[in-house]
Write a structure and sequence with these properties.
Number of domains: 1
Number of helices: 0
Radius of gyration: 12 Å
Order of helices and strands: EEEEEE
Shape: globular
Mean pLDDT: 87
Structural class: mainly beta
Number of strands: 6
Largest sheet: 6 strands, antiparallel, barrel
Strand content: over 45%
Low-confidence stretches: none
Helix content: under 10%
Distance between the termini: 31 Å
């Protein structure tokens, strides 16, 4: 059984989003599977193109969040929201 190391509980989100790079390169579309106050689990089509830091922009009135990748599994990534 896997131990849950999260500081905040995650809630299902299932939202469309995008990884933004402040105009340095084209945005990458993503699906936000779940999120908490401290991070999220996202899925992207091209995980090899995702750098360790980016801005996550989600639909549904959520403010953009600076993120750092904390784990990668195939097309899914776990990200922590930066302060």
């Amino acid at each position: 059984m896997t131990t849950n190391r999260r500081r905040a509980s995650r809630k299902g989100a299932f939202r469309i989003g995008a990884l933004s790079f402040a105009g340095e390169r084209a945005d990458i579309d993503c699906l936000v599977w779940d999120q908490s106050e401290t991070g999220a689990q996202i899925e992207v089509e091209t995980p090899d193109e995702v750098p360790d830091e980016f801005i996550l922009v989600m639909t549904a009135y959520a403010k953009p969040r600076a993120c750092t990748v904390v784990w990668r599994r195939d097309r899914k990534l776990g990200v922590a929201f930066s302060v």
